């Protein structure tokens, strides 16, 4: 009769250990198809365990299909291919190294952490977790009504944007919202990608097998002539603050783009208002959505910039026609943001905390920007640089007089612990005129390190261009 | 000279009101292209405001492209198309009515709310929000290392699944993970949808313009012969607990499917282990992932079932080859789950709370299931029904002897406040043999209402089949 030494089982329950032993023998071929297993009673006596133990082990083996009961006869092994019982221990993968720790990082969009509203959010989350049992239910496709109402009220009060909460769809980040928009607008469309611009969206189009074209951006934004020439249908733009040039699209170009969109059904404008809250002089620029009378603009915005990148809450505002289509074809999707997070954010907005938080952050960022510009002005290379588009958003441009090419500058800076990025990285086919324009993301940097960082940058720019470029 | 009555401005800042007035005149055509605006000083005197007010208003108009400064001359109106200044007030949309409130809902997968760990989660979230400043940084594509480690340790300790934390990708729900898998595996694949099965996934394939086939499920699961015949590449299955039939796929069929996958590169098995934690007799069924030696299984699971649907945290485990491809082509994506939520869940798992929560819920659901089955056994229609597949998961099947067709039963029940669903709804082309099999989702129901619900169901089944079906 089958014999197993049950002493080695450690803390595994007896029946489960027995099940593992028999399973292993079946998978290794020791027990072959058609073989009859001992009767429960005699097997139990033999192993000195209870009949219940054998019964439970057999039941598990039956449930998984290793053996079958035959009425009035007993249990038989099923025909099964032999294989190693448990996968060989997998070699440990090493985690990909964390991003190199830079002395100062001018590329990554970190936020300024000094002002994060820990206490308020903790309290609101506690309320969400304890008070709202409705939050335990499945979520609607478009998100929590409380949050959509809070956003609509906020947009009306502080941005002059009038939308119904119904038009708002909440999603876990703008990248996700793009993939939903693609599904909504359809695969027959040709998408336009701004050049220079936010090229991640081109990678999303690529991954989804969509047709897209790079369209040049001039001083006023996307060129309408090129849009027509390339027969594009859907454009993705940030008219309030173009990324990375920082250009504000003038009203005339906005009108031209809306006219272009209205000329043909199926043409749409995705307006990504990603950092419109941070305008340091004057008022926020009104979005194109406000002058869209034909339902051509899909407006989107995110709380990643205003609260923290780790807060994955974005939203889009759909024109009515698209909203109806969304409900019909995509209403089965669950909303991707936790109900608790949505409730917390709704309270954060409704309680006025969000507006106060933005104002505080705007002041902080203004000071930070001034400090960075001041450090540049005082640097040894002050007369070799020109600062542009610094009145809005969390980055500005700095044109540098240098013979070093952008890629070389990035490498030299990296050796000095500085992370830089250049306009040319955001271009599909950069021309020589686009070189030497640094995109300065300052929101997350430690300003105490600026003087030292400026010294290091100066040493790079001062080095003999010719020798350095030859050595690398 | 231009004159505006600035008294009506309410609480709008003076400069902003002036900007609105001029903008409105430009958009309405009152001020035409080329027209020169009054000089700042004389306009300020005329309106009895400070020069700074006019300067700020002009600056905003310049920023938005309505006017342009001409050196040593003044400000001129740009050529702009006239249009209504602000969109007419939008008609309010009415929120789509909430789902009808049913007396008892046997269809929706609610959770049992009695045991939700409010206090523990609140405490852990407070820790996340206050202690971990690293959580304010942008998220990696695959999620927080802490959570991936917690999941890997949990899977090893409680499920016997050995994976590296590196292989885990966190995402905001399984629907989202499907769309990522589609992008990863490519658009040239043919996808198989189980019939009966989880047909939402077919709608996702449809929205993404992918080719897919419905493949029949027999008593052991997806038919390998049909898979070969239909030339499919990727299958999505729940071998541990098929939805909705509840069938456990026997080891033999698992081996056949793995063999099928290994025969051709590009073939993959998506194993959705959505409610494997809730097995009421014996041990959890080991996943196919454990016997996959060729890297063909993409395992996925969710915390929506085990904690709450509103907790949008799911994960997938990628085989090494796909992991490398994912990093290369899709590593630019941000993870879609809030860093705070990930940290909270990591602590919940590491602290042993998750395991204890599952055990508590399993007991609760077992009692709930027994109560439902007991109520059915005691009902007047006990001898007309047969209960099937009730040892696992949060639903079971009930075959009803009736002449009423499924759609009619659903309508009649709805009138009585009962929400029912039938196996036939989960089938692409149901046959008469598939009729009258109710899918009983019991996890969220109020058991106190069961006796009354059984009376109502009995009255429907007792009613003369012929007259009722004629009347509707």
How do you describe this structure in short?
The structure is a homodimer of 472-residue chains. By secondary structure, chain A is α/β, with parallel strands linked by helices.
Rg of chain A (CA only):
31 Å
Low-confidence stretches of chain A: 85-93, 464-472
- In the CATH hierarchy, the architecture of the largest domain in chain A is 3-Layer(aba) Sandwich
* Secondary structure tally: strands of chain A: 15
Strand order of the largest sheet of chain A: 4-11-10-9-8-5-6-7
- CATH superfamily descriptor of the largest domain in chain A: Type I PLP-dependent aspartate aminotransferase-like (Major domain)
Largest interface: A-B, 104 and 104 residues
What's the level 1 CATH class of the largest domain in chain A?
A: Alpha Beta
Q: Report the portion of residues of chain A in β strands.
A: 5-15%
Main sheet record of chain A: 8 strands, mixed
CATH topology of the largest domain in chain A: Aspartate Aminotransferase, domain 2
How would you classify the helix and strand content of chain A by structural class? alpha/beta
Give me the strand/helix succession of chain A. Answer: HHHEEEHHEHEHEEHEHEEEHHHEEHEEHH
Report the mean per-residue pLDDT of chain A as an integer: 88
Helix run count of chain A: 15
The termini of chain A sit apart by: 74 Å
The shape of chain A, in one word, is: elongated
Total tally of structural domains of chain A: 3
Percent of residues in helices of chain A: 25-40%
Give the oligomeric state of the chains in this entry, treating copies of one chain as homo and distinct chains as hetero. homodimer
């Amino acid at each position: 009769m089958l014999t197993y030494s049950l002493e080695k089982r450690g803390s595994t329950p007896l029946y489960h250990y027995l099940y593992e032993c028999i399973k292993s023998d079946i998978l290794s071929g020791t027990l072959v198809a058609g073989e009859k297993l001992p009767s429960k009673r005699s097997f139990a006596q033999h192993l000195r365990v209870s009949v219940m133990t054998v019964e439970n082990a057999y039941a598990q083996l039956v449930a998984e299909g290793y053996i079958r009961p035959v009425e009035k006869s007993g249990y038989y092994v099923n025909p099964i291919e032999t294989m190693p019982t448990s996968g060989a221990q997998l070699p440990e993968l090493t985690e990909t190294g964390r991003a190199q720790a830079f002395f100062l990082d001018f590329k990554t969009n970190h936020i300024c952490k000094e002002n994060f509203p820990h206490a308020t959010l903790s309290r609101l989350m506690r309320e969400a977790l304890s008070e709202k049992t409705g939050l335990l239910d499945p979520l609607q496709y478009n998100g929590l009504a409380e949050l959509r109402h809070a956003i609509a009220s906020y947009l009306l009060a502080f941005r002059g944007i009038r939308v119904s909460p119904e038009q708002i769809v909440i999603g876990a980040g703008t990248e996700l919202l793009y993939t939903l928009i693609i599904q909504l607008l359809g695969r027959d469309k040709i998408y336009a990608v701004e050049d220079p611009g936010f090229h991640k969206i081109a990678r999303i189009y690529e991954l989804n097998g969509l047709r897209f074209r790079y369209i040049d951006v001039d001083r006023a934004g996307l060129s309408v002539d090129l849009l027509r020439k390339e027969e594009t249908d859907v454009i993705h733009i940030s008219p309030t603050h173009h990324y990375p040039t920082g250009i504000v699209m003038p009203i005339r170009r906005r009108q031209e783009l809306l006219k272009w969109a209205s000329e043909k059904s199926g043409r749409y404008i995705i307006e990504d208002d990603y950092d419109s809250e941070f305008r340091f002089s004057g008022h926020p620029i009104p979005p194109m959505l406000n002058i869209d009378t034909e339902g051509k603009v899909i407006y989107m915005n995110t709380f990643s910039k205003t609260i923290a990148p780790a807060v994955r809450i974005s939203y889009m505002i759909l024109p009515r026609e698209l909203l109806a289509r969304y409900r019909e074809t995509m209403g089965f999707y669950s909303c991707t943001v936790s109900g608790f997070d949505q409730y917390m954010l709704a309270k954060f907005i409704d309680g006025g905390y969000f507006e106060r938080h933005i104002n505080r952050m705007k002041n902080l960022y203004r000071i930070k920007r001034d400090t960075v510009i001041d450090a540049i002005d005082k640097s040894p290379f002050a007369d070799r640089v020109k600062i542009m588009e610094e009145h809005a958003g969390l980055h500005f441009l700095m044109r540098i007089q240098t013979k070093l090419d952008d890629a070389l500058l990035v490498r030299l800076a990296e050796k000095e612990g500085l992370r830089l990025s250049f306009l040319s990285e955001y271009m599909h086919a950069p021309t020589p005129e686009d070189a030497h324009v640094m995109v300065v993301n300052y929101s997350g940097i430690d300003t105490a390190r600026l003087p030292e960082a400026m010294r290091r940058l100066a040493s790079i720019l001062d080095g003999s261009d010719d020798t350095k470029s030859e050595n690398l």
